[in-house]
Amino acid sequence: MAAKDGDGWASCERGHQHWGVYGASGLLVVHHTAKGPFVLMQKRALWSHHGGTWGLPGGAIDSHEDAITGALREAREEAALPREALRVQGVYLDDHGAWTYQTVIATAVEKLPVRLNLESIALRWVSLAELPRRRLHPGFAETWPVVSEMLKPLVVVVDAANVIGARAEHGWWRDRAGATSRLLAELADLARAGVVAPVEGLPSLTRRFPQIVVVVEGAARGAAVPEGPIDVRAAAGSGDDAIVGVVRGAQEWEKVLVVTADRGLRERVLAEGALVTGPKWLLGQLPGGSGRAGSWPERRGFGRGT
Fold it and tell me: pTM for this one?
């Protein structure tokens, strides 16, 4: 296990040669604007494989790395992109058989400045309309029609009271703050580990890292809020009203998934354009949780309840 031990050629079951003994990954950085998204593209050095084509900063994964670690390292080496300025949203797996390429999708709040190294002729922030007019790396061109549908960040809004009720912990109603504290700690762990269950209405990713917003109300507002990547919002009044407010406040380029079994709330957020799923979808992904991780969400025109 050593740095750069992934460098080298590998063959896939399609009969192609690829760079990366342990596979490869690339970083697709997206900056969303009201006029549409921009993605950071790299024009590869002429001496490299498929030199002169446009693709993503990336390269071979070392034996001790996962796809995200490898992609972030390569992006820092090739474009000087700082890890702290990026928010990883998900990973898409392109399996060639005996060799894989993983696209790590991340968002940036601005068009970050970049710096060339010897592996790049150019680095540019490119609009989606402009991108097809460029000479693309063959692998990127093949996956782009699928990956381009995965650029919208996912916001998961959790109706904490409803999820805790569905979980049916013994005696939870006598200590709502304690039960909520336990749920929040598990959700923080899930946010760090990523979500693997599919979301109907959204393209499939092997792992997602959504923004998780948890709405608490009543006695649950006294719950201990863990440090970490979840956003806990205490409803001043109705928890349902607060959840609808979160949906309405989402950016136009975000997709919102509300986790609740409350029929009235489901109708309200569906009318606002959100996706909806029941607590089993979420509980099945928590440590020791109940429910099937494959329970799929609903939306108007899809799945159950249509």
Answer: 0.87
